[in-house]
């Protein structure tokens, strides 16, 4: 059967995509951020996952306010990145895994989650930036991908508990897939940030570090938070933490923290990086 070997978290800020494209790895502003990634690169090189399941949020490229599904799962053979208007260079096609995608879709629907299945799907910086940060040149580091989009834009949003349970359903579906694929699950976005309004620039380091601590061994505590709690404590865009909760749900009961990095500010955002390894 397929098995999940670990989980990764990463910011997906558009400015990161620009900095990556311009190779600003040693720039004083960006260096503390990029310096967090080599240990994860080493782990990926050693463990060589076959598939990356990526929880992310679309920012208007694939869905907009007139049609905004709560949960969407890609079921395509490939996914295209398109120009979003941020000045980020578009990058090549991402290979999918339609057989595993459909198995996941059928599994979560049987588990009581109504999802939008997407046989065509454009992927924006929420997906492309983390994949690029972790795998870089995909010709040298090939990885199949399954994008899973969770609405964080149009309220009402799914609660942390609902996303945690959704992640559990994803994990069960992956673990029942009759293949030998090694899967890594990404939770993207965040941590605390607010991009507009009276609290623009708001960052809550204490809350962020608490979330990074508890997501390892006490995710049920974080599942008790409401969306209003997240917005109050982490800013309007800090609600993206539900993507981390979905990732953590997919990993199962026992995980070990292998690596973390936390850096502020990156484009008015608290950037959190974690590598969690599953344990039998």
Explain this structure.
- It is a single chain.
- By secondary structure, this protein is an alpha/beta fold.
- It has a single domain, classed as LigB-like (Protocatechuate 4,5-dioxygenase, Chain B).
- The chain is 35% helix and 21% strand.
- It has ten helices and eleven strands.
- The strands form two sheets. The protein has an eight-stranded mixed sheet with strand order 6-3-8-2-9-1-11-10, sandwiched between helices. Strands 5-4-7 form a three-stranded mixed sheet.
- Strand 10 and strand 11 form a beta hairpin.
- Helix 1 packs across helix 5.
- The radius of gyration is 17 Å and the shape is globular.
In a nutshell, what does this entry contain?
Helix content is 35%, strand content 21%.
